[in-house]
Amino acid sequence: MARCRIGYLLALGAAVLFFICFNGYFSLYVLVLALVFPLFALLVSLPGMLGCTVELAVSARAVRRNETAEAQLTVVSRSRLPVGRLTADLVWDNAMNGQSGRIRVRLSGASLGAVRRESLPTGHCGVVRCRVARVRVCDLLGLFALRRPTPPETELAVLPLDLPPEPVPALLGAEKNQVMRPRPGGGPGEDYDLRPYRAGDPLRSVHWKLSTKVDSLVVRETLEPQKAVIVLSFDHFGTPEELDVIQDRLDAVSRALIERERPHAVRWLGDTGRIRERKVSSLTELRACQWEIFSTPAPDSGHAGAGRLSGSGGDALVRSLHITAGDGGGEEGAQ
Amino acid sequence: MKENLTLTRRTMVVLSDCLMLFLGLYGTVFCLISAFHLPVDYRAVTVTCLACVLFFTAVFALPWRWVRGALYLGCAAGLAATVWRWLDLLALGGLVLARQVVNIFAWALGSNVTLDITSLAGETTLGSEAAAVTALFLLVTAALGFWIGWLWQRMRSFWLTFWGTFPLLALPLSVTVTPGWTPLLMLLLFWSIGLLVRQTKKTDLSGSAKTVLMTLPLCILLLVGLELALPREDYEQTGWAEEARLEIIDRLAAAGRGVTSAGADLGLASGTDQIDLSRVGPLDFDGDTALRVRSETTGHIYLRGFSSAVYTGGGWEQLPDETYRQMREGWTFTVPNMAAISSIASGTELSIDGIGDYQPINFPAMANSGADTTRIEVENVGAADRFVYTPYQLSTTPDRMTGAEFVGDAYLARGTGVWTHILYARETASPLRARLTGDAALAEQNYRFFVNQNYLQIPEELAPEIARLVQDMQVWRSQNTVEEAEELLEQGMPYYGVILGRYIAAYLASIAVYDPDTPAAPEGTDFVTHFLNEGRGYCMHFATTATLMLRSMGIPARYVSGYVADTVAGEWVDVPDYNAHAWVEVYLGGYGWQPVEVTPGYDGTFAWEREPEETPEPSETQTAEPTPAPTHSQAPRPTQNVEVPETEERESLSPWLWLLTIPAVLALAAAGLVLRRRLAARSRARKFSQADPNRAVIEMYLYMEKVAARTGGAVDPTLEALAKKAAFSAHVLTEQERENARTLMERDANAADRSCRRLERLVFRYILGLY
Q1: Domain span at B704
Q2: Whole-number Cα distances in Å, A120 to A92, A99, B521, B534
Q3: Residue B270's pLDDT band (cuts 50, 70, 90)
Q4: Which residues of B touch A83 (CB under 8 A)?
Q5: How high is the ipTM of this complex?
Q6: pTM for this predicted structure
Q7: Which CATH architecture has domain A50-159?
Q8: C-alpha distance from A88 to closest chain B C-alpha (Å)
């Protein structure tokens, strides 16, 4: 638009010069026309300018890292009249690693609508938030501009690479030394334990035969093997490349656990210093968990293992895996 | 950008291209024709324009490249064959065109040059010339049609089109010739609309076409409205624009003349009316021409640039503007102590009237109204451009002066853009026969008071030295000078000032020698003191000293800068810069300012002192006639030198203006059809969306009945059932049912539209407004 305005000023200057140098009526006519014409052009352009709206969409809700993703800017002209020039600033930022960028989109005409697709960066994991910062529509001469409403923001999740599921024997190996615990609600079972009656115990559970022998109420309590609670934690800080490595591993381990039908928890340190945890037992829950992780800003540096073992473990057996970007990939622990 | 255009949109694009090409082609061709008054057959050229528009639009719209290429070659071959066949005719047409262009340029530039083609083409008649130019312009129209069409319809570039057509309009405009108004407006219309669609033309073809068709009538209204709002008949350029134009021309002319150097050492080239004497050193001239003068008489004339009133010791300055205002309007005079000569008490305030519109420089000529008037033309070639160099005894009065303006009583300032002035002077007007009468005499008496108040000034610190010099002069006696003075007195010369001036000149010549290499006065040393100490000087030294000596003796005097010219009757003579000079003017009561030569070696005699000669008959007209510089552009005016077709012939354009209504009617019809379709669609939408869903569905059914009747189909049974339910059931239809009915209606209407053939579809959509 600046170029148009400068061009108009030059043209106006030329008209003034012409008015001075040419002493005929035509020079006055041209000068007045040069002064009036921008307003005329604005009036003619207004229906097109006011009838123009912009819509924003992304090509997919989630893509794997390094796959192609596009933001699609659609210009709709309700008046079916062309616009001089439409300028929209497409702004994106990665919520996790903080990277951002801006793309200026220029369109003209679009009386029948127009679509512009712009590639979005998918080189790093994270939620890429995409919005249109400003929409300006110029008149047909390009001298005046109107702001138009901006469309709502859209998001795209850039998921980790689709690596093969990565089993972690240490997490599962602990199943051999099973710990038996009373089954909630009781019921039939091969393994059971005997204990004195406590108020509230169902009468079905009373071991009558033994009770008569010991002359006090003895209850038979069904036992079941208790599985360890698996907690995956990771370093939620570092460079974008480090974060990508961490998320790739987390994704692989988590999918391996899901394949073995092992629910687990994912735990990380949030941006406010609070530990955040999400239970994962299916791919859907994993995606939801990842969406939450990717929406949480990750600082460049932090304390390794800050969210490693603490958290809601209760008195249950907890097996944890802390994932880092280092060569070791992670370290297991139990409590 | 390729767009998949529907038939309607494609039609719209072709129509807009046709209109734009016609505007551009007709405007360009007829701008040329009308600007250079070419005797063409307007009907033939107009028809050719239309034919070219249709043909080239069709050719450029063809989707097959090889077909287009073949047609281009065919056009070129046809054009070449026509040129070959009409070679003689076209040659004559070219000559007539060249003659008209040259003659119009010469006329516009104020030149008398004309191009005569008789020697090349032999004797021709107007009819044969018209036929030849018409033939030429038929080909030019075809070529331009291809050119503009290519740029607009193939290249789709506004700027290329603009720069492809603008030079043809710039050609006549460059010499301030305005082409015919109708083609000019059409060209402006073409550019205006082109400017509006320039951004969308390449990316949105149908949108641009729509804009063209929509804005065309609006642009016509704008252009016509502007013309009505700005009346053309009595147009005169605005004052400031006129001044700016002349200023520009002036600057350009001055630049073309080179840097002014003439008279540089006499304070003339500084461009101001002040003289800085402290910088005056050895004279250095380069011999450039400063002035060109043509007089009706042969002789020696003084051309005054400007006079100075106030001596500061280091220079000469003008009187303040307030003083000049008093000179014109009057002032109050406080009587000094004059007990010895007057009974008026000292300190009495007398009111003195101003001289009004009289100009003191005219007094000598007015005092000798019977003297012969001589016409003198002075062209400023390289002298200081602020002044008009005027002869003495000037008879041109301020009310007859144009291109120059008097500044106080000091000089005549040059008007912007005027470099040559024609002035009238009564060279033989003599103070011996001076006799002012009536109001002029009263004005002169008042001016005499003014002179006595303002032209006797001497710096206090210099006054004793000047008085001593005067005393020395009284001791000095030159026999020749005394005899000369006595001779003048015997002739009846009543003015002591002139005699005294010449006596002073003789005295100064005895104590100082003329030396053009006299160095500048050292800093802090008075200019006159330096001159007297050195014992040498040139005109500035002599004139300054003589002025102060005259003032010291009570004679009103002033310093003057100018040029001395030796004229030859009726011939232009060059006045070189070394003819720049300074002299003294003394005021003679009842007559005016009289120049006195005080520099040794200069001939100080004036026309009135010489023997009477046979002088030419006085001119009847005495108005100063400024002649603009050659580069001065002029408004077009009719001239006999240019072969301009008769007005009646040019009027023949108007009967053919009806042809212009064809595209206008087409455009309006197209706009009307589009509007009709839009209104029908809007009306349908309103009916189908009304609050009562039963009524809305019935309207849908009625609409589909019309569509079916037109296309020979039938209304969808489901829609019919819904309509019956809406009409005869007591229930109100649900929104879902309304939407179902709408979906069915839209589907069937679309199918009906697609089932039509192209022409039927146009009728279906635009004339019946059914889709």
Answers
A1: 689-767
A2: 8, 12, 83, 92
A3: low
A4: 200
A5: 0.71
A6: 0.57
A7: Sandwich (2.60)
A8: 17
